[in-house]
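User
Class, as today's exercise, I want you to study this protein, comparing sequence with structure tokens, and judge whether sequence predicts the tokens.
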Amino acid sequence: MDTLTPHQQLTQAIGELPIEILPELANFIEYLRFKVNFPHEHVTKAQNKSGSAFLLGIAGLGASDEDDTGRRNFS
């Protein structure tokens, strides 16, 4: 019978990962911490259910007032 707490199970799993993957794990943990603390007042239920909608929302993609956002030559 496995008597480890969830915290102990995570600690054990992290200890078994190769050291090269730890920066990626740290980034994912930071993402989860941000997600937990993100102010949900202005996020719709659809955005909460869809990870890509959430990421697009925080990136501000599609929020431009410009009609034409194509490449332009400014020379």
Remarks:
- The two ends are 70 Å apart (CA to CA).
- The chain has four helices and no strands.
